[in-house]
Structure formats: structure tokens, C-alpha cells
Amino acid sequence: MRIETCYFCSKPAYPSKGITFVRNDAKEFRFCSSKCHKNFKMKRQPRKLKWTKASRAHKGKEMLVDSTVQFSARRNVPVRYNRDLVDRTLHAMERVAEIRARRERVFYKNRMAGKEARELAEDRKLVAENEHLLPRHLRSGEQAVAADGEKTPAAPYTHKTKIFGEGEKRRLRSRVDGGVEEVAGGDSMDMD
Fold first, then answer.
1. Global model pTM greater than 0.85
2. How many CB atoms lie within 10 A of CB 18?
3. In the CATH hierarchy, which fold is given to the domain comprising 1-62?
4. Among 6, 46, 86, 150, which residue is least crowded by beta carbons within 10 Å?
5. pLDDT tens for residues 124-177?
6. Residue ranges of the domains in the chain?
7. How far is the C-alpha of 186 from the C-alpha of 169, rounded, in Å?
8. What are the strands, taking DSSP E only, across 92-188?
9. Helix, strand, or coil (residue 136)
10. Measured between alpha carbons, how far is residue 191 from residues 135, 138, 177 in Å?
């Protein structure tokens, strides 16, 4: 039996699965699922829906021109059975699948080349724009990013520990500009 492709999303529509719609002019439309059939009836463009093969090809995420695609093209002319021809065809099918997988891997690698550098640049830009939201000890004054792309180690955030009996009367008051000042006489309250 022949495995046909879905008219809408280009996924394989296996025999006895999916829906076949025949128009008045005798044109057949095969759909892999009711989802594709409903979208077709709503006259939606497959290119505008992200999950279809047409959309992926339109955006350059899928290989368009490839000789391995022609191998699986539909041929309507019947061929007389020939054992050697069938044997060669089966070997060729395995080989074509192998070649297609390799080409798709190379296509993906070429498409993703430079992605990490672009994402790193976007992240740096985002941090630079929203630096005021970072905690004070992580801002650019104390943790600078070098031009070569490596992060310099951040100065560890030091917190003074109290020793029992020492400095019990001391209080720290945080200022608006980010500094900290020491206030003597911790027990007394500030009255304005």
C-alpha cells in the first residue's frame, strides 16, 4: 500500500488512517488527522501555521531542494515485477534515507552556526539595559565582563560575622545611595 502525504501539513498519511476529501472536480485531498482537515475547511494557509512542513520550508528551517526528495516522488506508471529491480530499489531506499539524514544534520549545523554567540550578545545587552535591577554586589563596578568574552571572577560578597560580646551596641543603617553607615548606640531609637 502507498503511504501518501497529508495535503495540509505534509506528514505521512498511512493507509486506513486519516481523512480523504474528494472535491467535485475529482481532486483528492488526503489528511493525516481531523486537525488538518478542519484547518483545510477553514481555508487556512499552511505557511502561516508553525507546525506545518510548508511553514518550516518557508522560513528556511527545512531543506527544499534536494535530490533525495525526488526519489520518493510518486510515479503513476506501473512497472513489471523484476526481482533484481526490487532488490536494487530496497538497497537504494536505505542508502537514500542515510544520505538524507546526513544532509539534514549538515543543514541543521549550518543553520545553527553562530547561534551561541548571538544568544550571548543578546544576554549581555539585556543585562546592560537592566543593570539597575541587579543586586548591588553584582553590578558592573564589582563584576566586569572582559572584552574577550570570559567573565572575571566576582569579588566574594563578604559579610562580617559578629563575635559574641563585641559590637552588640553597633547598628548599621543602609543609605539611599547604596552605602552603609554605622550608627552608635544601637538601643536608642531615632526620633526626628
1. no
2. 19
3. Ribosomal Protein L24e; Chain: T; (2.30.170)
4. 150
5. 999 889 888 888 777 775 444 433 355 555 555 566 665 665 555 566 777 777
6. 1-62
7. 5
8. 171-174, 180-183
9. helix
10. 30, 34, 22
